[in-house]
Amino acid sequence: MAARSATTVGSEHSAGSARWRGMTRPVAAQEQGAGEARPWWAVEPVETTLLDPAAREKLLAELVAGPDLPAVLGPAQLAAVQAAEHRLADGRRLWLIVATVTEQVGILPLRDDRGRSAAFLIDVGDHVRLTRFSENGQLVWVNHSEQVLQECGPYEVPCGCCCRFDWRAFGSCCHACLYVCIPPSWRCLACVLISCGAVCLWASCPGGWGCTCCCLVPPG
Question: In the chain, where are the structural domains located?
Answer without folding.
Answer: 16-21+29-137+148-216
